[in-house]
Amino acid sequence: MNSMIEQVYSIPDMIRDSLDQFDDGIRRTLDHNFCLSLKRIFLTGCGDSHHASLNTELAFESLAGLPTEPLTALQFARYTAPYLPDTGPGTNGVIGVSVSGEVARTLEALLLARRVGATTIALTATPGSRVAEAGDFKVYSTTAPFPEKEGDHTPGIRSFTANQLALYLIAIRIGEVRGKLTSAEAATARQELLALAEAAKKAIPAWDKIARDLAQAWAEAQEFVFVGGGPNFGTALFSAAKVLEASGDMALGQDTEEWAHLQYFARTIPTPTILITAGERDLTRMLEVATAAKAIGRRLAAVFPSDLAEGDKEHRLVETVQFIFPLPQGTHEVFSPLLTTLPGSLIAAHRAEVVGESFFRNFTGGRDISGGGGISRIRTSEIIIGVQP
Q1: How many CB atoms are closer than 10 A to CB 5?
Q2: According to the model, what pLDDT value does residue 369 have?
Q3: How many CB atoms within 10 Å of residue 376?
Q4: What are phi and psi of 376, to 5 degrees?
Q5: DSSP code of residue 334
Q6: b/e per residue, 84-113, with b = 16+ CB within 10 A?
Q7: Mind listing the pLDDT tens digit for each residue in 101-125?
Q8: How far apart are CA 122 and CA 145, in angstroms?
Q9: What domains can you pick out in the chain, each with its CATH number?
């Protein structure tokens, strides 16, 4: 079992061990004045941290009751922060997500947010980091160290899940203080998150086998497409990112509706396409996409609820796809990314084994990790704090 697969198996225990710790820290940190003064929230970060923001937008809007916009750190810092509405102190909340706390663009986003009077929350696993210091409030998503051999570098799954969990708990905290959720409803939401840990523990062994079979059956594929809508658009992007990091294969995450406008016309007929749905708001469109993808010759897999296997519409999806990753019953769409991101991670891990590729391609070809991310300068990029509207 490679270290990436081991990470996936460790997720249930990590959620159980971290939930109360994260929740206690968030309740102590985010005071009533802050929660009550908010009028809107911006979520920002890079890479996996941006995907976590996309995955939790629905939670902030439905549980906290606030308009929420997830943006990449570059988009927020240089193209959005200068134009934030001047609606009074504490009304614009900006949550910057960075596991390392040293990503230059996320730091820039928080610095520019503060410059225009927004209240900032730094969500990071690294106390004392530059991003942490740029937050008016500091929320830590630090988890127990995961054992790796010296020199190993594994695509992040635990850190991503930890950030998702913390963002959900922030949304619940804000919603409870603002009266969008009663105390009982907030407690139920927290228990639902905890229950997903047990659901994941039961589901992961079966998903692991399905992912291994998929990777072997589609070994000659040159690219992969992951498709999801709503909160699972972030899941699609994250899953594609894990394939890129694990095996170096070209992979794309696409919005469910946008697939029908774009990837539908791609030349390579048998491109593996993985459909991701929690079976709620996006279901009817996903069924249409599945039918279209099958008709033009795509090889299909799906992550979708196990309790949707019965009935005419759902049965069509079952018959359309070759590999099915069943979501446990009772997995609600708003929290579903805690689970839906795991099958894609397993696919990526097994794909790397099948093609004999090292994670991150051993950081060759200018991809070394020195200097803040090699030539890409993820941590040493120039920080601009004077963008003019």
Answers
A1: 22
A2: 73
A3: 12
A4: -75, -20
A5: G
A6: beeeeebbbbbbbbbbbbbbbbbbbbbbbb
A7: 999 999 999 999 999 999 999 999 9
A8: 21
A9: 3-181 (3.40.50.10490), 202-357 (3.40.50.10490)
Residue tagged 């934030």 (tokens): 84
Q: How far is CA 151 from CA 241, 350, 363, in A?
A: 21, 21, 12
Tracing tokens 């949707």 back to the chain, one arrives at 308
What are 41-99's pLDDT values in tens digits?
Answer: 999 999 999 999 999 999 999 999 999 999 999 999 999 999 998 888 999 999 999 99
Nearest to 173 by CA among 244, 93, 112, 97: 93
Q: Which of 276, 184, 278 is nearest to 239 (CA)?
A: 276
Say which amino acid occupies 247: S
Distance in angstroms (rounded) separating the CA atoms of residues 164 and 45: 12
Phi, psi of 93 (to 5 degrees): -105, 130
Contacts of 114 (CB under 8 A, 6+ apart): 120, 134, 136
Over residues 277-330, the pLDDT tens digits come to: 999 999 999 999 999 999 999 999 999 998 775 555 555 677 789 999 999 988
Q: What is the pLDDT of residues 7-38, one digit of tens each?
A: 999 999 999 999 999 999 999 999 999 999 99
Q: Please, are residues 129 and 100 in contact by the beta-carbon 8 Å criterion?
A: yes
Which structure tokens are listed for 293?
Answer: 């993808």
* Segment 181-191, tens digit of pLDDT: 999 999 999 99
* Lowest pLDDT segment from 10-19, 140-149, 190-199: 140-149
Phi/psi at 113 (nearest 5 deg)? -60, -45
CB-based contacts of 352, cutoff 8 Å, min separation 6? 2, 4, 246, 247, 358, 359
Q: Are 44 and 94 in contact (CB under 8 A)?
A: yes
CA distance 389 to 383: 17
Which pairing describes strands 299-305 and 137-140: parallel, antiparallel, or unpaired? unpaired
24 alpha-carbon distance from chain centroid:
23
Task: State what percent of residues in the chain have pLDDT above 90.
Answer: 85
**String of DSSP letters for 275-317:** EE--SSTTHHHHHHHHHHHHHTT-EEEEEEEGGGSSSHHHHHH
Q: Residue 314: its pLDDT value, please?
A: 52
